[in-house]
Automatic annotation (TrEMBL):
The keyword Amino-acid biosynthesis does not apply. Keywords: Glycoprotein, Hydrolase, Signal, Zinc. Residues 147-337 form the Calcineurin-like phosphoesterase domain. This is Purple acid phosphatase. InterPro entries: Calcineurin-like_PHP (IPR004843), Metallo-depent_PP-like (IPR029052), MPP_PAP (IPR041792), PAPs-like (IPR039331), PAPs_C (IPR025733), PAPs_N (IPR015914), Purple_acid_Pase-like_N (IPR008963). Residues 52-139 form the Purple acid phosphatase N-terminal domain. Its EC number is 3.1.3.2. CDD domains: MPP_PAPs. Its cofactor is Fe cation; Zn(2+).
């Protein structure tokens, strides 16, 4: 590289570093609370009912939404009636059903119906299966600003409830969950109780989830993994050209989000790897200036829990995300919060992604509060507390991230930072040549 270009590059890097990490952090003497009990739910009272349970919605392609619910009665129809005024349903959609058996457990009938086209940023009223209560949802906006709520490793304890209550108080458009939903841990009725616990939020805003280790529930010779998860939490994988519910992507209001699978093959000869390459090549940064990725096992983690578990996936896939200019990577798995600088290959890099671990939604296993010493150069903020994150894409160049601790049941904002997009900082253009080379090469 000519000297002048190298110097200009260095100046740009320094400038970006300063710009990107203009931040305010607080670190006080905080006494960490213990885990809380798993909540108790009584499900027997609902046996053989046509009433919809566990209603949740998810984005299903541009201007479409998938409505999913469970009935214990088999004959209940998979229809969703919907419209823009309460009690007046001008449209109706017909869906599909599935169910599964797991040892002595038999699931209810699981319904999935896609509704739309829907207008952006609008309230719709809807009813599932022709009866039962009316639900209300809000579609995401079609342009900036858009706000995501983020919480991973949820479970169903008193702390989960606290996290959900705090998310419910925030003004957001889409919930993103980087793995570990119910902590059913093979007890299938806990998938039902989790569905009931999250219904008030998940029936009102789309929940976009990817799988964690607690979704696997495989039994050698008897059960492949992810049966319950795939049946209940169907995500738009077909809509995004993927052949597996374990990885997919979606686009909403200027954001392309890639939901990867830490528990699907990711090596260079895998389907997931080929799909990721193809998906990244389809990204148009004029349409979606922000590129996000979510998966369960973090690549940048300085907690002693789950050390280096993400290394193999990272060495396979980090070069692709870097070449494409991924802005922010969100992971779970470690029950604590950590935020990095922009990093690549273990070192800070102004054109790398900001990595955030947010596996502290409130599960019964409690917090992971041992950290490696000294703090790695790339780690900016780390703390073992329950909480949730909010990511507001303000415009094509600026996003505001904040992490809210469930401090004594009050959502305290504990970490916050403005993040500037790689598109606005010139990284994506600079890497265009490298991107094509990396992505198109066989
Ligand atoms: C984007 O938002 C930031 C933060 O509010 C603001 O400073 C900046 O001027 C905005 N950029 C444009 C092009 O509107």
């Amino acid at each position: 590289m000519p000297k002048a270009a190298a110097a200009a590059n260095l100046m740009l890097c320094l400038f970006l570093l300063v710009l990107t990490f203009f931040e305010i952090s607080t670190a006080d003497n905080y006494v960490r609370p213990p885990p809380r009990q798993t909540l108790h739910f009584d499900f027997r009272s609902k046996s053989s009912s046509k009433l919809p349970q566990q209603v949740h919605i998810s984005l299903a392609g541009n201007n479409y939404m998938r409505v999913s619910w469970v009935t214990t009665d088999k004959s209940s129809p998979s229809t969703v009636e919907y419209g823009k005024s309460p009690g007046e349903y001008s449209s109706i959609a017909e869906g599909e059903t599935t169910s599964y058996k797991y040892l002595f457990y038999k699931s209810g009938t699981i319904h999935h119906s896609v509704i739309g086209p829907l207008e952006p940023n609008s309230i719709y009223y809807y009813r599932c299966g022709g009866q039962g209560p009316e639900f209300q949802l809000k579609t995401p906006p079609s342009k900036f600003p858009i706000t995501f709520a983020v919480a991973g490793d949820m479970g169903q304890t008193g702390w989960t409830k606290s996290t959900l209550d705090h998310i419910g108080q925030c003004n957001y458009d889409v919930h993103m969950l980087p793995g570990d939903l119910s902590y059913a841990n093979y007890l299938q009725h806990r998938w039902d109780s989790f569905g009931e616990l999250v219904q008030p939020l998940a029936s009102a805003r789309p929940w976009m989830v990817t799988e964690g280790n607690h979704e696997e529930e495989s039994i050698p010779l008897l059960k492949d993994g992810f049966e319950s998860y795939n049946a209940r939490w169907k995500m738009p994988f077909e809509e995004s050209g993927s052949s597996s519910n374990l990885y997919y992507s979606f686009e909403v209001a200027g954001v392309h989000a890639i939901m990867l699978g830490s528990y699907a093959d990711y090596e260079e000869d895998s389907d997931q790897y080929s799909w990721l390459k193809a998906d990244l090549l389809k990204v148009d940064r004029k349409r979606t200036p922000w590129l996000l990725a979510l998966f369960h096992v973090p690549w940048y983690n300085s907690n002693t829990a789950h050390q280096r578990e993400g290394d193999r996936m990272m060495s396979a896939m980090e070069p692709l995300l870097y070449a494409a200019g991924a802005d922010i990577v969100l992971a779970g798995h470690v029950h604590a919060y950590e935020r990095s600088k922009r990093v690549y290959q273990g070192k800070s890099d102004p054109c790398g992604a900001v990595h955030i671990t947010i596996g502290d939604g409130g599960n019964q296993e409690g917090l992971a509060n041992k950290y490696k010493d000294p703090v790695p150069e790339w780690s900016v903020f780390r703390e073992a507390s329950f909480g949730h994150g909010e990511l507001k894409m303000v415009n094509s160049s600026h996003a505001f991230w904040s992490w809210h601790r469930n401090d004594d049941d009050e959502p305290v904002r504990s970490d916050q930072v403005w993040i500037t997009s790689l598109v606005s900082s010139g990284c994506v253009d600079m890497k265009n040549y490298e991107l094509k080379e990396k992505l198109v090469a066989p």
